[in-house]
Amino acid sequence: MINSFYLVTLLPLAGFLINGLFGKKLKNEKLIGAISTLAVFIPFLIGVSALFELLSMPPETRNITINYYNWITAGSFTVNYAYLIDPLSVSLVLVVTGIGALIHLYSIGYMHGDPGFAKFFAYMNLFIFAMLNLILADNFLLIFLGWEGVGLCSYFLIGFWYEKKFTGDAAKKAFIINRIGDFGFMLAMFFIFTNFNTLEVSSFLNQIGGIPVGDTLLLTIALLLFLGATGKSAQIPLFVWLPDAMAGPTPVSALIHAATMVTAGVYLVARTSLLYALSPLAMQILLYVGFLTAILAATIALKQNDIKKILAYSTVSQLGFMFIALGTGAYWVAIFHLITHAFFKGLLFLGSGSVIHGMHEEQDILKMGGLKNKMKITFITFFIGSLAIAGIPPLSGFFSKDAIIFETYKEFGIPFMIAALITAGITAFYMFRLVTLTFFGKPRYDVKHVHPHESPSTMTIPLIILAVLSVIGGFIGMPGIYGMPTYLKDWLEPVFAKSTAVLEIIHPVQEPSHTIEFILVGLAILASVIGILFAYKKYSTKETFEPETGFGKVLENKYYVDEAYDKVIVEPIEKVSEGFLWKIFDIKIIDGAVNGIARYISNISFDWRKLQTGIIQDYSTISVAGVVLIILYLLYM
Fold first, then answer.
1. Which of 91, 115, 206, 301 lies most in the core, judged by the most C-beta atoms within 10 Å?
2. Closest Cα partner for 325 from 333, 314, 313, 336?
């Protein structure tokens, strides 16, 4: 199936074209949904087949580049449309297509009756196409094509319900903020081509292997690529777009803003891990930005009341954990948490959509309560997802988050480890605040007019599958202390072998004993259990809610980061744009020059028009005078 791998991207593109061009004519929601879902599910099956093919090969040969055609040739500049099939890309293909197929199936029920049903599925397939190109590309330009493609589809899908002003504002915010990161990515590509005369990822990484550690050029490229990753993966200071992106339909939040697009930055750093291993300062910046993002977003989530906003800030925080892993050099751990996060966060977002669907579009958890008996499947699956993200064993989030905490302790000691444990405890608290206020206690909604109900099977089946994955998904990356095979680490080892070798040379670290590792495991479980119990005790019987004051008000208003950006960046730009660029430069200088030339020509034309008197004697006189002047010229010149 590796030779047929082009179908992995071709089928979602075909789904986009079919539903985009003929969706309105089909007028059959089940057919439209089936076409789009199969266009993603069949690539998943191809990915599974490719996985087994790679497993049957020796580890050192699990790196296949397939060149489909020459894309661009201009002088010495050549770019091929080629895919790199290796353990990292195949792992991400399975996540994107597997989770994507479940979300497409879920969307058939969620989007039922929407007038833009076919258009929605067309956009979703186009997004999958762009994301798969990003993952599989063997060169930076093709990665950037997919990078921009997912950004464009994100804009379309966030603003899908364009008749609502706030969705359009959220879409523009996401698009504009991501352009800042994209600019960094573009500059990085320019630096790579001008200095290494290539845009192929493998060629670039091979060339930098002999460059000394800490080289300024490599540091510059690493930081510019990280700027791109900061935008896509919603890290400080470019994280503010992601919570607002919840304005789109819930399946969009699950697919784009939890399981796939926002992990593109993590993938980019992992793909270029050797670059970061050779740039220790860039690694430190990754670590600090990841920690700050994880803690900041987790504390904001403590006081949010919109069910999707809580999950949005949770996503930002979990992405911070992934960058912490990257900053410690544990690249495979970052991918491990990326995979488990896709399972449980996809489940939680789809579960929130089920709650919203059953509550007749209500999203405020303060107006819910007592739903566990009304929506049993949604409750059980959501509860499992919450346990997973809280890090309760043996669910998937426990193993991946525990691995991050252990790597943090191993590389940077107790202070960073304590910060990671505190953030994990906060995560457990805000998630079970959400669970308790939504599913436990007495109903706080109008029981006479609101009648919660379970979602249809097209929505609950994906919830059940993702719940199962959230339970068993962590076993692929269990650490060696449990006496189990380290499947994921061994699978990804060839991808990160050079990076790991460099890190071991420049920053050798002694492996802590198993006793210390078990102590850290116990502390992580304790932090999560304390957070869960505290949340349940505080909110299970709470029926009235006072307005937030003090620091709680600050958290409720997200540290006023958006307001600060408005004051420091947006408003000055608007004032300069309106006061100088528009009213002075545009109107007085540009328009003044253009209108001045027009008036001058008009005035001259008015004066010359007076020569046209309409009297034949005047024209005869002018003609004779012209003849006389010509004769005089010929006689005397």
1. 301
2. 333
